[in-house]
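Page 47, continued from p. 46.
Same chain as before, 330 aa.
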Amino acid sequence: MSGYTPPFSVTNEMLMQVAGIAEKTGRITSYRSFETRPHLRRNNRIRSIHSSLAIEANSLSLDEVRSVIDGRAVIGPEKEIQEVKNAYQAYDMLGSFDPYSLRDLQKLHGVMTYLTVQESGVFRSHNEGVFNGDVCIFMAPPPQFVPEQMRALFEWMSAAKGLVHPLILSSVFHYEFVFIHPFSDGNGRMARLWQTALLSEWNPVFQDLPLESRIHEFQDGYYDAIAACHAAGSSDIFIGFMLDQIERTLDWALEQVSEQDAQLSGPVRKLLDAMEHDVPYTAAQLMDALGMRSRDSFRRHYLAPALEQGLIRMGIPEKPTSRNQTYIRR
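Result:
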């Protein structure tokens, strides 16, 4: 397997898609669309986790996943609740590990499958198949080949870094990983997390985009693309599928940001412009910065809407009427 290169070709259509995706990614980045909207970032992260788990037959709803992450009690299968906790921890580590490190991949698999599988963080010791529900798409390579195949895949990624565009490289990795199916469980979750990690190294905005939601929405197409690539002996079809889903995700994100901007009233926008992130302000300080005298008008038109939309938070949330209350831009 030394010097292995995954079979794929870069077509003109792919290059056109890459150019369009890069332009849309730049638009989101230049607007600092999610950096200034932590509530959107968190909601998108929860969407990512729910969708990636749902693809693997986790039955918890989006609201139940949110409740687990918020630390609220949820009635449901213990394993599925643990899967949510594990995925949240794994996604929270985006940006802190090396997506070109095989050792980090195994470490993150240990996080993703903590307390849910016996072979956690280690390669599988038995045969596995790739399934869409109850339908077997293909049988993965025998377990004795997995360590060398994974080493070869990561060696190729390291060599191709800087030569193959990350949008294409990450999609090739995603398919090859699913084909090898290196773990006894959690392969789909890890493949999707790792593509997000590779894309995030190219542009951190991908940490805040729910790409998994688009894959979940087109789940049959996802597995059809995998099956077609297996039959063709090349990942070209899967690359095209993933580029489509990445572009759909960016279109959705741009629309989401536009809707949020449209909902911001003039007073709320002025209030946010007067506040630095993570700096506590008293109501008096904010009124002074805005040149206001009416406390009632300030609370009704500025403070209350910003709190309701999750754009600012109280410094002392357990005492909302405290005379020492402060307000912090998220």
